[in-house]
Structure formats: structure tokens, C-alpha cells
Amino acid sequence: MKSVAKLMILTAVTIIFFSACNSSLNGSDPYYKISSLFKQYCLFQAQSQWTYRNDSTNKTYNVSITNVSPYIGFHSPNNVAGPYSYDAIDMIYDTANRLNLLKSSINAGDPSSGTGKMKDLYWLFFKNGNYLLAFAPGYPMGVAQRLGKNPGLYTNLQLLNSFSLNGKNYSDVYHSQVKKTEGTPDTVTYEFYFALHYGLIKWTRRVNGKETSFSLAQSHLIQQQ
Predict the structure, then answer these.
(1) Are 137 and 116 in contact (CB under 8 A)?
(2) Which parts of 129-207 fold into alpha helices (H)?
């Protein structure tokens, strides 16, 4: 009888445990996944490499991915949106790259907000602690999004059906702009170009009338099929 009682207790505990797990997994908070189209723009596997050229000096710089780390993030409720969980993926760059790039991070956004098929976000992190939102195609074209001091003032400028760069033609290229301050009162203006299956193909940084520009010279990129 004692064995039967122990078995009944163990069974009850097991049922309660799995019920709690299922309640957590199937809670009322939404769970968002990164769209497949956004992944074709932004998600690349380890050993992918871009070679960028400084458009003024013609000097080239290699940037490669050493590690890809997926995880699930949580958005705390605020005055804009309620709580939700979302897919996120970090792409860590090699520490030897000379462009000050630390990593890129992509995450799913609220599919009920914004416009178009891609509500996802692409963040760019630098070794010096600077970071910004570089690509968010779900925001309306031409409408500035004030995201805070660090992410900056983000605007989708245009979607280019065709864009030529260093002798290569790219299609469906998103052109975005970010304005922010970086420890000084001077506004720094970035512009980014993202191409399908190539990711970031060109960017500029302008401050006090001085502009630095980098464009993709060649690449070896790996994406999941």
C-alpha cells in the first residue's frame, strides 16, 4: 500500500509540474518570430565574410562572423506595447576587424505594428560601446522614429528596386538613416544600405561636414537554405 501511495503522490506531482510548464509556455503573452524574409536580408552563419572598401582611400577591411547565438528575449510592458517574448539572434564579429564592429543583433518585432511584411529590427554594436538601430523596414517610409539617445532618430528613406555598387547590381535595397549624438553635442548622421542575401552593403558616417563611406567590395556569405 505504501508503494501505491508513493506512486500516486509521484504521479500527482508530475501532473502538477507539467501543467505549470504548459501554462508558462502557453501563456497569454504573445511570442513573435523573426520573419523568413528578414532573415534573407540579415541572418548569416559563422564564417561569413564581407570585404568593405573605404570609398576615399580604397583601403579594404575584412569583417567575418565567428559565432551565431540565438535566444529568446522578453519585452516588458510600457506605454507603447504590452509584454511579449521574441526571437533574437546575435552575430558576433571577429575581434581583429578594423572597422570597430562588435556584433549585429536581429530580433522580431510586434507583427501588428508598422507596415509591410518585415517588422523585425537590426541593431549594430560597436567596440567603443556605441550602438544604433540600423535597419527596421516595418517603420513607414519618410517618418522619423525617435527611439532614444543611444539608438538615435531612425528614418526609412527609400526602397530601391535597383542599386549599383562597385560594378555589381543589387535589387530591393533598403536605404535608412540614423541621427544621434555620441558623447558630444554634435549630431552624427549615419546612412545604411541593406540588400537581399547580402546584408549591409554600404554605410556612411557624417559629422561636422566630414563624411566617411564604406562599400562592399566582395563577400563570402553563408545563409540557411
Answers:
(1) yes
(2) none
- Find where cell 522580431 sits: 108
pLDDT digits (tens, 9 = 90+) for 65-102: 999 999 999 988 776 667 889 999 999 999 889 999 99
pLDDT digits (tens, 9 = 90+) for 201-212: 999 999 998 999
Using an 8 Å Cβ cutoff, are 175 and 193 in contact?
A: yes
Phi, psi of 159 (to 5 degrees): -115, 115
Give the global pTM: 0.84
Q: Quote the pLDDT of residue 168.
A: 96
Amino acid at 21: C
- Which residue type is seen at 195? A
> What is the DSSP secondary structure assignment for residue 28, as one 8-state letter?
S
- The span from the CA of 112 to the CA of 85, in Å, is 14
Other C-beta atoms lying within 10 Å of the C-beta of residue 208: 9
How does strand 121-126 pair with strand 131-135? Answer: antiparallel
Q: Give residue 75's Cα distance to chain centre.
A: 15
Q: Which amino acid, 75?
A: H
For residue 136, the SS3 value is coil
Round to the nearest angstrom and report the end-to-end CA distance of the chain: 58
